[in-house]
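Need a sequence for this fold. Nothing fancy.
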Protein backbone atom coordinates (compact mmCIF):
# COMPACT_ATOMS: atom_id res chain seq x y z
CA UNK A 1 0.00 0.00 0.00
CA UNK A 2 2.72 2.46 0.97
CA UNK A 3 4.59 1.81 -2.29
CA UNK A 4 1.57 2.84 -4.34
CA UNK A 5 0.89 5.86 -2.19
CA UNK A 6 4.58 6.75 -2.53
CA UNK A 7 4.22 6.64 -6.33
CA UNK A 8 1.18 8.91 -6.11
CA UNK A 9 2.99 11.51 -4.02
CA UNK A 10 6.18 11.20 -6.11
CA UNK A 11 4.21 12.10 -9.23
CA UNK A 12 2.38 14.73 -7.19
CA UNK A 13 5.79 16.20 -6.32
CA UNK A 14 6.77 16.41 -10.00
CA UNK A 15 3.42 17.85 -11.04
CA UNK A 16 3.58 19.96 -7.93
CA UNK A 17 6.99 21.39 -8.72
CA UNK A 18 5.91 22.35 -12.22
CA UNK A 19 2.56 23.64 -10.98
CA UNK A 20 4.18 25.64 -8.21
CA UNK A 21 6.71 27.16 -10.60
CA UNK A 22 4.06 27.85 -13.23
CA UNK A 23 1.54 29.24 -10.78
CA UNK A 24 4.13 31.30 -8.94
CA UNK A 25 5.26 32.73 -12.25
CA UNK A 26 1.62 33.36 -13.08
CA UNK A 27 1.11 34.85 -9.63
CA UNK A 28 3.74 37.44 -10.50
CA UNK A 29 1.12 38.85 -12.85
CA UNK A 30 -1.03 39.77 -9.83
CA UNK A 31 1.43 42.35 -8.42
CA UNK A 32 2.21 43.31 -12.02
CA UNK A 33 -1.46 43.98 -12.75
CA UNK A 34 -2.23 45.64 -9.40
CA UNK A 35 0.71 48.02 -9.80
CA UNK A 36 -0.16 48.92 -13.41
CA UNK A 37 -3.94 48.60 -13.71
CA UNK A 38 -6.44 50.49 -11.61
CA UNK A 39 -8.97 48.24 -9.80
CA UNK A 40 -11.64 48.98 -12.43
CA UNK A 41 -9.44 47.64 -15.26
CA UNK A 42 -8.36 44.61 -13.26
CA UNK A 43 -12.02 43.97 -12.52
CA UNK A 44 -12.79 43.80 -16.25
CA UNK A 45 -9.90 41.36 -16.77
CA UNK A 46 -11.22 39.14 -13.96
CA UNK A 47 -14.74 39.30 -15.40
CA UNK A 48 -13.69 38.23 -18.92
CA UNK A 49 -11.48 35.40 -17.66
CA UNK A 50 -14.32 34.14 -15.44
CA UNK A 51 -16.51 33.84 -18.55
CA UNK A 52 -13.68 32.07 -20.40
CA UNK A 53 -13.38 29.56 -17.56
CA UNK A 54 -17.09 28.71 -17.69
CA UNK A 55 -17.07 28.35 -21.48
CA UNK A 56 -13.93 26.19 -21.25
CA UNK A 57 -15.86 23.44 -19.51
CA UNK A 58 -18.32 23.30 -22.40
CA UNK A 59 -15.44 23.09 -24.90
CA UNK A 60 -14.00 20.00 -23.20
CA UNK A 61 -17.29 18.04 -23.32
CA UNK A 62 -16.09 15.86 -20.44
CA UNK A 63 -13.80 13.98 -22.83
CA UNK A 64 -10.72 14.24 -20.60
CA UNK A 65 -12.30 12.02 -17.94
CA UNK A 66 -13.68 9.74 -20.66
CA UNK A 67 -10.22 9.41 -22.19
CA UNK A 68 -8.72 8.49 -18.80
CA UNK A 69 -11.37 5.83 -18.27
CA UNK A 70 -11.14 4.12 -21.65
CA UNK A 71 -7.41 4.52 -22.29
CA UNK A 72 -6.22 3.46 -18.82
CA UNK A 73 -7.22 -0.18 -19.35
CA UNK A 74 -6.24 -0.42 -23.05
CA UNK A 75 -3.19 -1.75 -24.85
CA UNK A 76 -1.04 0.67 -26.84
CA UNK A 77 -2.98 0.25 -30.09
CA UNK A 78 -6.38 0.80 -28.50
CA UNK A 79 -5.03 3.66 -26.38
CA UNK A 80 -3.99 5.47 -29.58
CA UNK A 81 -7.43 4.87 -31.05
CA UNK A 82 -9.01 6.34 -27.91
CA UNK A 83 -6.66 9.35 -28.11
CA UNK A 84 -7.47 9.94 -31.77
CA UNK A 85 -11.21 9.63 -31.36
CA UNK A 86 -11.31 11.98 -28.37
CA UNK A 87 -8.87 14.46 -29.90
CA UNK A 88 -10.55 14.78 -33.29
CA UNK A 89 -13.92 15.18 -31.57
CA UNK A 90 -12.60 18.11 -29.56
CA UNK A 91 -10.90 19.72 -32.59
CA UNK A 92 -14.14 19.73 -34.58
CA UNK A 93 -16.46 20.96 -31.81
CA UNK A 94 -14.06 23.58 -30.42
CA UNK A 95 -13.34 25.08 -33.82
CA UNK A 96 -17.04 25.46 -34.54
CA UNK A 97 -17.74 27.05 -31.15
CA UNK A 98 -14.90 29.57 -31.49
CA UNK A 99 -15.99 30.55 -34.99
CA UNK A 100 -19.47 31.28 -33.62
CA UNK A 101 -17.93 33.51 -30.91
CA UNK A 102 -15.78 35.39 -33.44
CA UNK A 103 -18.64 36.07 -35.85
CA UNK A 104 -20.93 37.10 -32.96
CA UNK A 105 -18.36 39.30 -31.22
CA UNK A 106 -20.31 42.55 -31.07
CA UNK A 107 -23.50 40.83 -29.93
CA UNK A 108 -21.57 39.07 -27.18
CA UNK A 109 -20.12 42.39 -25.98
CA UNK A 110 -23.64 43.78 -25.62
CA UNK A 111 -24.77 40.63 -23.83
CA UNK A 112 -21.98 40.81 -21.23
CA UNK A 113 -22.18 44.61 -20.85
CA UNK A 114 -18.75 45.59 -22.19
CA UNK A 115 -17.75 48.45 -24.50
CA UNK A 116 -16.75 47.84 -28.13
CA UNK A 117 -13.15 48.74 -27.29
CA UNK A 118 -12.90 45.19 -25.90
CA UNK A 119 -13.90 43.47 -29.17
CA UNK A 120 -10.28 42.37 -29.64
CA UNK A 121 -10.51 40.67 -26.25
CA UNK A 122 -13.50 38.64 -27.46
CA UNK A 123 -11.53 37.44 -30.49
CA UNK A 124 -8.55 36.58 -28.27
CA UNK A 125 -10.85 34.72 -25.87
CA UNK A 126 -12.21 32.62 -28.75
CA UNK A 127 -8.66 31.64 -29.79
CA UNK A 128 -7.71 30.86 -26.18
CA UNK A 129 -10.75 28.63 -25.71
CA UNK A 130 -10.10 26.70 -28.93
CA UNK A 131 -6.40 26.07 -28.37
CA UNK A 132 -6.78 25.32 -24.67
CA UNK A 133 -9.25 22.59 -25.66
CA UNK A 134 -6.83 21.29 -28.31
CA UNK A 135 -4.34 20.67 -25.47
CA UNK A 136 -6.72 18.77 -23.16
CA UNK A 137 -6.24 15.25 -24.54
CA UNK A 138 -2.47 15.55 -25.18
CA UNK A 139 -1.99 16.69 -21.57
CA UNK A 140 -4.17 13.80 -20.40
CA UNK A 141 -2.04 11.37 -22.42
CA UNK A 142 1.12 12.65 -20.74
CA UNK A 143 -0.45 12.13 -17.31
CA UNK A 144 -1.67 8.64 -18.18
CA UNK A 145 1.77 7.69 -19.49
CA UNK A 146 3.38 9.09 -16.33
CA UNK A 147 5.40 11.58 -18.42
CA UNK A 148 5.24 14.18 -15.70
CA UNK A 149 8.46 15.96 -16.72
CA UNK A 150 7.24 16.70 -20.26
CA UNK A 151 3.94 17.87 -18.77
CA UNK A 152 5.80 20.13 -16.37
CA UNK A 153 8.02 21.72 -19.00
CA UNK A 154 5.10 22.61 -21.26
CA UNK A 155 3.09 24.09 -18.39
CA UNK A 156 6.00 26.25 -17.26
CA UNK A 157 6.76 27.46 -20.78
CA UNK A 158 3.08 28.39 -21.17
CA UNK A 159 3.33 30.75 -18.21
CA UNK A 160 6.70 32.15 -19.29
CA UNK A 161 5.22 33.03 -22.70
CA UNK A 162 2.20 34.57 -20.97
CA UNK A 163 4.38 36.76 -18.75
CA UNK A 164 6.67 37.90 -21.57
CA UNK A 165 3.65 38.73 -23.74
CA UNK A 166 2.06 40.68 -20.89
CA UNK A 167 5.25 42.68 -20.34
CA UNK A 168 5.34 43.56 -24.03
CA UNK A 169 1.67 44.47 -24.43
CA UNK A 170 1.30 46.33 -21.12
CA UNK A 171 4.65 48.00 -20.57
CA UNK A 172 5.95 48.55 -24.09
CA UNK A 173 2.92 49.26 -26.27
CA UNK A 174 0.37 50.00 -23.50
CA UNK A 175 -2.34 47.75 -24.97
CA UNK A 176 -4.22 47.47 -21.65
CA UNK A 177 -6.95 44.88 -21.10
CA UNK A 178 -6.89 43.78 -24.75
CA UNK A 179 -3.15 43.08 -24.39
CA UNK A 180 -3.74 40.75 -21.45
CA UNK A 181 -6.29 38.70 -23.42
CA UNK A 182 -4.05 38.63 -26.50
CA UNK A 183 -1.19 37.36 -24.31
CA UNK A 184 -3.41 34.50 -23.17
CA UNK A 185 -4.23 33.57 -26.78
CA UNK A 186 -0.54 33.58 -27.80
CA UNK A 187 0.34 31.32 -24.85
CA UNK A 188 -2.46 28.86 -25.72
CA UNK A 189 -1.34 28.57 -29.35
CA UNK A 190 2.27 28.09 -28.21
CA UNK A 191 1.23 25.29 -25.87
CA UNK A 192 -0.34 23.28 -28.68
CA UNK A 193 2.83 23.74 -30.76
CA UNK A 194 4.90 22.40 -27.84
CA UNK A 195 2.56 19.39 -27.61
CA UNK A 196 2.86 18.51 -31.31
CA UNK A 197 5.33 15.63 -30.69
CA UNK A 198 2.72 13.95 -28.47
CA UNK A 199 -0.10 14.65 -30.90
CA UNK A 200 1.83 13.32 -33.91
CA UNK A 201 2.87 10.17 -32.05
CA UNK A 202 -0.59 9.29 -30.73
CA UNK A 203 -2.88 10.53 -33.49
CA UNK A 204 -4.42 8.13 -36.02
CA UNK A 205 -6.74 9.59 -38.63
CA UNK A 206 -9.27 6.85 -38.09
CA UNK A 207 -12.40 7.22 -35.99
CA UNK A 208 -14.21 4.44 -34.17
CA UNK A 209 -17.93 5.26 -34.27
CA UNK A 210 -18.71 2.90 -31.39
CA UNK A 211 -15.93 4.42 -29.29
CA UNK A 212 -17.20 7.93 -30.06
CA UNK A 213 -20.56 6.94 -28.63
CA UNK A 214 -18.96 5.43 -25.51
CA UNK A 215 -16.71 8.45 -24.90
CA UNK A 216 -19.52 10.95 -25.27
CA UNK A 217 -21.89 8.85 -23.19
CA UNK A 218 -19.33 8.85 -20.37
CA UNK A 219 -18.23 12.45 -20.80
CA UNK A 220 -21.41 14.40 -21.53
CA UNK A 221 -22.93 13.92 -18.05
CA UNK A 222 -19.79 15.55 -16.66
CA UNK A 223 -20.33 18.84 -18.53
CA UNK A 224 -22.95 20.23 -16.13
CA UNK A 225 -20.81 19.15 -13.19
CA UNK A 226 -17.75 20.76 -14.76
CA UNK A 227 -19.58 24.02 -15.38
CA UNK A 228 -20.96 23.94 -11.85
CA UNK A 229 -17.50 23.19 -10.41
CA UNK A 230 -15.91 26.08 -12.31
CA UNK A 231 -18.83 28.28 -11.27
CA UNK A 232 -17.94 27.56 -7.65
CA UNK A 233 -14.64 29.30 -8.33
CA UNK A 234 -15.60 32.22 -10.54
CA UNK A 235 -19.37 32.84 -10.74
CA UNK A 236 -19.05 35.42 -7.97
CA UNK A 237 -17.09 37.76 -10.29
CA UNK A 238 -19.95 38.30 -12.76
CA UNK A 239 -22.40 38.64 -9.87
CA UNK A 240 -20.13 41.15 -8.13
CA UNK A 241 -19.87 43.15 -11.35
CA UNK A 242 -23.64 43.54 -11.58
CA UNK A 243 -24.19 44.12 -7.84
CA UNK A 244 -21.26 46.48 -7.26
CA UNK A 245 -18.70 47.83 -9.76
CA UNK A 246 -15.55 46.86 -11.66
CA UNK A 247 -13.27 48.24 -8.92
CA UNK A 248 -14.84 45.96 -6.31
CA UNK A 249 -14.38 43.00 -8.65
CA UNK A 250 -10.73 43.96 -9.06
CA UNK A 251 -10.10 44.14 -5.31
CA UNK A 252 -11.89 40.83 -4.77
CA UNK A 253 -9.95 39.14 -7.58
CA UNK A 254 -6.56 40.31 -6.34
CA UNK A 255 -7.16 38.95 -2.83
CA UNK A 256 -8.92 35.81 -4.03
CA UNK A 257 -5.78 35.06 -6.04
CA UNK A 258 -3.79 35.08 -2.79
CA UNK A 259 -5.49 31.75 -2.13
CA UNK A 260 -3.14 30.43 -4.82
CA UNK A 261 -0.92 28.85 -2.18
CA UNK A 262 -3.69 26.48 -1.08
CA UNK A 263 -5.04 26.03 -4.59
CA UNK A 264 -1.56 24.99 -5.75
CA UNK A 265 -1.45 22.05 -3.36
CA UNK A 266 -4.98 20.93 -4.26
CA UNK A 267 -4.40 21.24 -7.99
CA UNK A 268 -1.01 19.55 -8.12
CA UNK A 269 -2.42 16.69 -6.07
CA UNK A 270 -5.42 16.33 -8.37
CA UNK A 271 -3.19 16.01 -11.45
CA UNK A 272 -1.79 12.76 -10.03
CA UNK A 273 -4.90 11.73 -8.08
CA UNK A 274 -7.31 11.04 -10.94
CA UNK A 275 -5.16 8.53 -12.85
CA UNK A 276 -3.97 7.09 -9.52
CA UNK A 277 -7.33 6.04 -8.12
CA UNK A 278 -8.27 4.39 -11.41
CA UNK A 279 -5.00 2.42 -11.32
CA UNK A 280 -5.54 1.14 -7.74
CA UNK A 281 -9.29 0.64 -7.97
CA UNK A 282 -8.91 -3.11 -8.58
CA UNK A 283 -6.67 -3.65 -5.55
CA UNK A 284 -8.13 -5.48 -2.57
CA UNK A 285 -7.10 -2.64 -0.25
CA UNK A 286 -8.07 0.21 -2.62
CA UNK A 287 -10.52 1.72 -0.14
CA UNK A 288 -7.96 1.70 2.64
CA UNK A 289 -5.47 3.43 0.35
CA UNK A 290 -7.99 6.16 -0.50
CA UNK A 291 -8.81 6.65 3.18
CA UNK A 292 -5.14 7.01 4.07
CA UNK A 293 -4.55 9.44 1.19
CA UNK A 294 -7.27 11.62 2.71
CA UNK A 295 -5.36 11.81 6.01
CA UNK A 296 -2.07 12.78 4.40
CA UNK A 297 -3.59 15.32 2.02
CA UNK A 298 -5.64 16.96 4.76
CA UNK A 299 -2.61 17.20 7.04
CA UNK A 300 -0.66 19.03 4.34
CA UNK A 301 -3.56 21.37 3.57
CA UNK A 302 -4.06 22.29 7.22
CA UNK A 303 -0.39 23.21 7.54
CA UNK A 304 -0.61 25.39 4.42
CA UNK A 305 -3.73 27.08 5.83
CA UNK A 306 -2.02 27.96 9.11
CA UNK A 307 1.17 29.25 7.50
CA UNK A 308 -0.53 31.47 4.91
CA UNK A 309 -3.17 32.76 7.32
CA UNK A 310 -0.50 33.74 9.83
CA UNK A 311 1.80 35.48 7.35
CA UNK A 312 -0.49 36.88 4.64
CA UNK A 313 -0.14 40.51 5.79
CA UNK A 314 3.65 40.19 5.83
CA UNK A 315 3.59 38.63 2.35
CA UNK A 316 1.57 41.34 0.62
CA UNK A 317 3.56 44.18 2.21
CA UNK A 318 6.90 42.91 0.88
CA UNK A 319 8.59 45.83 -0.85
CA UNK A 320 10.30 45.10 -4.18
CA UNK A 321 11.97 47.98 -6.03
CA UNK A 322 9.71 50.44 -4.29
CA UNK A 323 6.54 48.49 -5.02
CA UNK A 324 4.62 46.29 -2.59
CA UNK A 325 3.72 42.76 -3.70
CA UNK A 326 0.07 43.83 -3.88
CA UNK A 327 -0.65 47.54 -4.32
CA UNK A 328 -2.18 49.19 -1.27
CA UNK A 329 -5.30 50.04 -3.31
CA UNK A 330 -6.21 46.35 -2.98
CA UNK A 331 -5.39 45.71 0.72
CA UNK A 332 -8.96 46.32 1.88
CA UNK A 333 -9.78 42.82 0.65
CA UNK A 334 -7.21 40.94 2.77
CA UNK A 335 -9.77 39.66 5.36
CA UNK A 336 -11.25 37.32 2.73
CA UNK A 337 -7.98 35.39 2.25
CA UNK A 338 -8.35 32.88 5.16
CA UNK A 339 -11.89 32.13 4.00
CA UNK A 340 -10.71 31.43 0.46
CA UNK A 341 -7.90 29.23 1.77
CA UNK A 342 -10.36 27.20 3.83
CA UNK A 343 -12.65 26.90 0.80
CA UNK A 344 -9.85 25.37 -1.27
CA UNK A 345 -8.99 23.00 1.60
CA UNK A 346 -12.55 21.69 1.65
CA UNK A 347 -12.53 21.43 -2.15
CA UNK A 348 -9.50 19.14 -1.82
CA UNK A 349 -11.52 16.87 0.46
CA UNK A 350 -14.39 16.74 -2.02
CA UNK A 351 -11.96 15.52 -4.71
CA UNK A 352 -11.11 12.56 -2.50
CA UNK A 353 -14.76 11.82 -1.72
CA UNK A 354 -15.83 11.86 -5.37
CA UNK A 355 -13.33 9.17 -6.48
CA UNK A 356 -15.84 6.39 -5.79
CA UNK A 357 -18.33 7.87 -8.25
CA UNK A 358 -15.77 7.76 -11.05
CA UNK A 359 -14.51 4.30 -10.14
CA UNK A 360 -18.04 2.87 -10.20
CA UNK A 361 -18.94 4.74 -13.42
CA UNK A 362 -21.66 6.71 -11.61
CA UNK A 363 -20.67 9.97 -13.27
CA UNK A 364 -24.32 10.89 -13.71
CA UNK A 365 -24.41 11.51 -9.94
CA UNK A 366 -21.54 14.00 -10.00
CA UNK A 367 -23.63 16.93 -11.29
CA UNK A 368 -26.06 16.59 -8.36
CA UNK A 369 -23.63 17.80 -5.72
CA UNK A 370 -22.00 20.30 -8.04
CA UNK A 371 -25.28 21.89 -9.06
CA UNK A 372 -26.53 22.11 -5.49
CA UNK A 373 -23.28 23.77 -4.38
CA UNK A 374 -23.20 26.14 -7.36
CA UNK A 375 -26.85 27.06 -6.80
CA UNK A 376 -26.17 27.80 -3.14
CA UNK A 377 -23.19 29.96 -4.07
CA UNK A 378 -25.21 31.99 -6.57
CA UNK A 379 -28.09 32.54 -4.14
CA UNK A 380 -25.87 33.35 -1.15
CA UNK A 381 -23.66 35.69 -3.21
CA UNK A 382 -26.73 37.64 -4.32
CA UNK A 383 -28.01 37.78 -0.71
CA UNK A 384 -24.75 38.45 1.13
CA UNK A 385 -22.89 40.84 -1.18
CA UNK A 386 -25.31 43.78 -0.72
CA UNK A 387 -24.91 43.41 3.07
CA UNK A 388 -21.27 42.41 3.49
CA UNK A 389 -19.56 43.30 0.20
CA UNK A 390 -16.72 41.05 -0.89
CA UNK A 391 -16.75 39.30 2.51
CA UNK A 392 -20.24 38.09 1.62
CA UNK A 393 -18.94 36.64 -1.65
CA UNK A 394 -16.12 34.86 0.22
CA UNK A 395 -18.54 33.39 2.80
CA UNK A 396 -20.81 32.21 -0.01
CA UNK A 397 -17.79 30.45 -1.54
CA UNK A 398 -16.93 28.70 1.74
CA UNK A 399 -20.50 27.50 2.32
CA UNK A 400 -20.76 26.31 -1.30
CA UNK A 401 -17.55 24.28 -1.14
CA UNK A 402 -18.67 22.75 2.16
CA UNK A 403 -21.96 21.77 0.54
CA UNK A 404 -20.09 20.18 -2.36
CA UNK A 405 -17.90 18.11 -0.03
CA UNK A 406 -20.91 16.88 1.96
CA UNK A 407 -22.80 15.99 -1.23
CA UNK A 408 -19.84 14.14 -2.76
CA UNK A 409 -19.31 12.19 0.45
CA UNK A 410 -22.97 11.20 0.71
CA UNK A 411 -23.35 10.18 -2.95
CA UNK A 412 -20.05 8.28 -3.14
CA UNK A 413 -20.70 6.37 0.08
CA UNK A 414 -23.90 5.04 -1.47
CA UNK A 415 -22.05 3.34 -4.34
CA UNK A 416 -18.49 2.94 -3.00
CA UNK A 417 -18.47 3.06 0.81
CA UNK A 418 -15.13 3.89 2.42
CA UNK A 419 -14.31 3.93 6.13
CA UNK A 420 -12.50 7.21 6.57
CA UNK A 421 -10.37 7.73 9.68
CA UNK A 422 -12.64 10.35 11.21
CA UNK A 423 -11.08 10.27 14.68
CA UNK A 424 -7.73 11.23 13.20
CA UNK A 425 -9.39 13.99 11.16
CA UNK A 426 -11.02 15.37 14.32
CA UNK A 427 -7.65 15.33 16.07
CA UNK A 428 -6.11 17.23 13.17
CA UNK A 429 -8.84 19.88 13.26
CA UNK A 430 -8.45 20.19 17.05
CA UNK A 431 -4.69 20.80 16.82
CA UNK A 432 -5.15 23.36 14.04
CA UNK A 433 -7.84 25.17 16.03
CA UNK A 434 -5.63 25.28 19.15
CA UNK A 435 -2.73 26.81 17.19
CA UNK A 436 -5.05 29.29 15.48
CA UNK A 437 -6.56 30.44 18.81
CA UNK A 438 -3.16 30.67 20.49
CA UNK A 439 -2.06 33.05 17.75
CA UNK A 440 -5.12 35.25 18.31
CA UNK A 441 -4.66 35.29 22.11
CA UNK A 442 -0.89 35.76 22.38
CA UNK A 443 -0.72 37.96 19.27
CA UNK A 444 -2.22 40.78 21.34
CA UNK A 445 0.77 40.78 23.69
CA UNK A 446 3.71 39.60 21.55
CA UNK A 447 6.38 42.21 20.86
CA UNK A 448 7.54 40.24 17.81
CA UNK A 449 4.57 38.60 16.14
CA UNK A 450 6.62 36.93 13.40
CA UNK A 451 8.63 34.98 16.00
CA UNK A 452 5.40 34.00 17.77
CA UNK A 453 3.88 32.72 14.54
CA UNK A 454 6.99 30.69 13.69
CA UNK A 455 6.96 29.09 17.16
CA UNK A 456 3.29 28.20 16.85
CA UNK A 457 3.80 26.63 13.41
CA UNK A 458 6.70 24.57 14.78
CA UNK A 459 4.38 23.30 17.54
CA UNK A 460 2.15 21.60 14.96
CA UNK A 461 3.99 18.25 14.76
CA UNK A 462 4.64 17.96 18.55
CA UNK A 463 0.95 18.61 19.25
CA UNK A 464 0.03 15.96 16.69
CA UNK A 465 2.16 13.50 18.63
CA UNK A 466 0.55 14.66 21.87
CA UNK A 467 -2.97 13.85 20.66
CA UNK A 468 -1.72 10.49 19.28
CA UNK A 469 -2.49 11.31 15.69
CA UNK A 470 0.23 9.12 14.13
CA UNK A 471 0.29 5.31 14.06
CA UNK A 472 3.49 3.40 14.79
CA UNK A 473 4.58 3.05 11.18
CA UNK A 474 4.16 6.78 10.62
CA UNK A 475 6.03 7.58 13.82
CA UNK A 476 8.99 5.51 12.65
CA UNK A 477 9.05 7.25 9.29
CA UNK A 478 8.89 10.69 10.95
CA UNK A 479 11.73 9.76 13.30
CA UNK A 480 13.90 8.85 10.29
CA UNK A 481 13.15 12.26 8.78
CA UNK A 482 13.64 14.44 11.87
CA UNK A 483 16.11 12.42 13.96
CA UNK A 484 19.70 12.31 12.79
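Here you go.
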Amino acid sequence: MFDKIKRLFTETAIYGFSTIIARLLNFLLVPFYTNILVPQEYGIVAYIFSLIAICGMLYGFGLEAAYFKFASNSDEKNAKQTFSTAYISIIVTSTLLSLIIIFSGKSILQLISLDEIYLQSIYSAAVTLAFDSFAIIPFAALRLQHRAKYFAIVKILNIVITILSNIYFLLIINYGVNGILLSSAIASVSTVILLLPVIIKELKFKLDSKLIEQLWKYGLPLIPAGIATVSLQIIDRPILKFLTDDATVGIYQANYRLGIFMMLVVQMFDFAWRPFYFSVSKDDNAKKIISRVMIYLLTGLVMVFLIITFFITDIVSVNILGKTLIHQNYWSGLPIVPIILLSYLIFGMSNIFSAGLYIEKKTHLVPIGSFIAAGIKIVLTIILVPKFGIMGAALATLIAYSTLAIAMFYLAQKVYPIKYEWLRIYKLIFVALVIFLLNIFFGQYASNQIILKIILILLFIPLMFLVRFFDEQEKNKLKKIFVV
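For context: The CA atoms of residues 105 and 119 lie 6 Å apart.
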